[in-house]
What does this fold into?
Amino acid sequence: MSLSVSLKINNQPHTVDLEDARPTLLDVLRERIGLTGTKKGCDRGQCGACTVLVDGRRVNSCLALAISHEGAEITTIEGLAEGDELHPVQAAFIENDGFQCGYCTPGQIMSAVGLFREAGTDLDAEQMRELMSGNLCRCGAYAGISEALGDAQKRLAEKGS
Ligand code: FES
Ligand code: FES
It folds into this structure.
């Protein structure tokens, strides 16, 4: 039995044929669409490296079956910038050295974008740490990540988004 799933990824429509119902959203994004910015860390829902937005909400794409998301709007790290202009959260991570090796960074950034959408920008550092606790950094770059989150919050508040 052949299956297909239609997704809107970074504002572009894609229909992907699947051999069965098992491919995860992460594998479809990376291996079928070629969007390798979303990273595979643990592949079991424990690290957050694979975080994308599905209909605006944070999802661990390694745990999501692609077939379950027919018609969904997916945003990946590749879809955040507007032309040459980085998303404020991307700019804040760069400005504040919110990374070391960078492997967890796309997931950290997507998670931060999602959390500011969910919870607004009026959060204290402790609340942000709690809401980002699903995103692990093996390099331990948490000090920079924390600074980046604070800066991102200010940038988004100034932008009114
Ligand atoms: S790769 Fe999905 S949570 Fe680790
Ligand atoms: S920057 Fe290396 S895992 Fe986070």
About this structure: The mean pLDDT is 96.
